[in-house]
Design a protein that fits this description.
- The structure is a single chain.
- The chain is globular.
- Helices cover 33% and strands 30% of the residues.
- Helix 3 links the parallel strand 4 and strand 5.
- It has a seven-stranded mixed sheet, with helices on both faces.
- The two termini are 28 Å apart.
């Protein structure tokens, strides 16, 4: 059974390690090598995110094992052409590679969608264009391309996606 709760201080290092392992796999699949072990700066970023009042950091567990994390920013997001539109930014969603395809990502995504709907907000996220697995995941969960992009690593862009309320 997958349980989800707010991250607590002291979990930043474990989340940094999970994130580093996850991104090493998906970037590696796209031909871009990144470290699978976080350095101290990377760890400190996660420690700060866990305690940042602007962010919601949710952790997924199976048993006592941390198997996923999602970070969202309901206070920010990128500017939009519709000034009355509320946006919730999905900063990142990461699942332990050995736990892919067992529902962890879907459970975390359900939390995000619920938060966005309660706020009457459009969800927004950027996905690395070579991460075809993630693109399929977002599309399965109702996300669509919004036509935006920004430069990413290895000459591949991050593509903008939205989830409508």
């Amino acid at each position: 059974m997958i349980r989800i709760r707010d991250a607590v201080p002291g979990e930043g290092d474990a989340l940094a390690e999970l994130h580093a392992r996850s991104r090493a796999v998906y970037y590696g699949a796209g031909g871009h090598e990144v470290a699978a072990v976080p350095d101290e700066r990377y760890r400190e970023t996660w420690r700060t995110m866990v305690t940042d009042a602007q962010l919601d950091v949710l952790v997924a567990f199976v048993g006592d094992d941390i198997v996923g994390v999602i970070t969202l920013d309901a206070n920010g997001g990128y500017p939009t052409n519709a000034p009355d539109e509320t946006r919730v930014r999905l900063v990142g969603i990461f699942v332990e590679p050995g736990r892919w395809s067992i529902g962890v990502g879907s459970a975390l995504m359900a939390c995000f969608v619920s938060t966005a709907r309660q706020a009457g907000a459009v969800g927004e996220v950027d996905v690395w264009e070579r991460n075809s697995r993630a693109i399929r995941f977002y599309e399965r969960h109702g996300w669509t391309r919004d036509g935006t992009s920004r430069p990413g690593p290895a000459g591949a862009d991050y593509l903008g996606f939205v989830h409508l309320p």
